[in-house]
Specification:
homodimer, about 280 residues, Arc Repressor Mutant, subunit A, SH3 type barrels, six-stranded antiparallel beta sheet, two-stranded antiparallel ribbon, DNA-binding
DNA sequence: CCCCTCTGTTAGATAAGTCTAACAGGATAG
DNA sequence: CTATCCTGTTAGACTTATCTAACAGAGGGG
């Protein structure tokens, strides 16, 4: 969701994002590419920048002029191209984010390499310093957490991996487990008891707290906007036995029986509570 | 980092991202805002869209025309505005991502609410379906992992929280712990032994595997591009005792003694190995 | 009934970021 | 020495996304 009225203009937003005024996503990309080429080649050629970014040469020339105007590269037509200290500093920062995100998505979460790389390209420009710090701390914690003794990630892969369909698993979170022993004891979060949509009657509202499903079902639900954190109101049973209908942001979404059993709500007593945290 | 030459044109990229051709970030924002307003108000007014997005009304009119041309809203000048099923479906998907990311950043990682919301705005357009699926699975796993018995997040907060500076902690990952008992036994990852930059001699290359530091130090390193996943070469000791200099993407980065002790490398035997995974 | 206010439109300007076409300058090959 | 090729520039066009200024319609107050 976009920013609210209080943080209005584009300029204000840029500043807020801690991105030096006037530096767009595209320009950040150029800086990063220049840094990368410079690390491997003695001279940085327009040609190579264009190839790396997938654009034509005149586009690069234009970008270099904008970067020069911002004081981030030393550029004069047909001369050697170098990053200024300011430019190199920004480029390093972006590149670090890129590497970290690629690694997080790929090695940690198990996203396929090509997608991890592509997503990192998009995400790197939008992660604030604060979020990056928290995320790196989180990764650091997981990788060194003594409680799980280094088994954490392998176990995650076992349960939620793509090719580990027949893994034996005792996690309640594991789709296999769920399939075998459907519900021995309702899941909890803190002191709240979570309930699957299938068990709730029309009128109940709540926030989606868990999606206990395998990859395919999870993706199907995500396409319709059903993901943890979303506010939902149960509006009726579906046509089939066990099916349900829920209201999400004003839209009616029908759920098949399997789906209705997979979506767990953290219910609230009141029916009308659509003040909605943004 | 931007895409490589193989996935060249903007059109190709849009398709790849699974974003229907011609639908930009800004337009996705408009769809999301319209959905949100529609869920609360019987009619959706241009005025309100403008306010929510922080732009002027004529900008909204223009955007609505583009959305109408894409078949995502039913729009005729001065008439009621409604999302088409296709538009509502996209809007739901984006909104779900937004909610999930806000929750992940805020509640899970502990990012401050305002920043979490703002980052979610930027990230929501760049997370592929695959990454989202993996990330939600990861969260699901953590929240229900029997090995850590639900203590996982509170413990994370204890060790890496902002205001829990004096928490007693036995995690090797914890900055407090590190400060007290600096290094009893080198950290490992798999069969590799990780080594702090401070202990390495010039010429050694490796990937940053851990940053064992508190928030302030971590942020300071991140500003210079030093974050897990980055390729680094140790190029010398610094001026001070315990300080060091490393080369990151062709840039010389000096490290203070504390910093050199905080950055752990997964070292490789060969010196020149800058084929660099992107 | 006329004027004022609010909502929303049109018109026209600007900036970023891309493209193609055409030109300029240097190296190389005959 | 000239023709050719490669690199990079300039020129001009287009799209997206934004702005301001000015106009249009609808409702209410006097």
């Amino acid at each position: 969701m976009p920013r609210s009225a209080s943080t209005a203009s584009t300029a204000a937003r840029a500043e807020e994002t801690r991105r030096p005024a006037g530096l767009s996503e595209a320009l950040e990309d150029y800086l990063e590419i220049i840094l990368q080429i410079a690390a491997r080649h003695p001279v940085v050629r327009v040609r190579d920048i264009a190839r790396a970014k997938g654009v034509r040469m005149p586009t690069v020339t234009a970008a270099l002029k904008r970067l020069a105007a911002l004081g981030l590269v030393d550029y004069q037509a047909r001369e050697h191209l170098v990053l200024t200290p300011a430019g190199a500093s920004i480029a390093s920062r972006i590149r670090g984010r890129h590497r970290f995100l690629t690694r997080f998505l790929g090695r940690m979460l198990g996203v396929s390499p090509a997608v991890a790389r592509r997503d990192a390209c998009g995400l790197e420009h939008h992660l604030s310093a604060e979020s990056l710090e928290r995320l790196t701390a989180f990764v650091e914690y997981i990788e060194t957490c003594p409680e799980v003794g280094g088994d954490f990630l392998p176990r995650f892969r076992d349960c939620f991996g793509r090719d580990a369909r027949q893994a034996i698993c005792t996690h309640t979170a594991c789709p296999q487990y769920a399939r075998q022993a459907s519900s021995r004891g309702a899941p909890r979060r803190g002191s709240h008891v979570l309930a699957p949509v299938a068990s709730l009657r029309p009128g109940v509202c709540g926030e989606v707290a868990r999606i206990q499903a395998d990859e395919r079902l999870r993706v199907r639900l995500q396409r319709r906007g059903l993901v943890a954190g979303v506010e939902v109101e149960v509006i009726g049973a579906g046509s089939l036995r066990g099916a349900a209908r829920v209201r999400v942001d004003g839209r009616d979404v029908p759920l098949a029986p399997r789906e209705a059993r997979a979506v767990f709500l953290d219910t609230r007593p009141a029916r009308e509570a659509r003040d909605a945290r943004t």
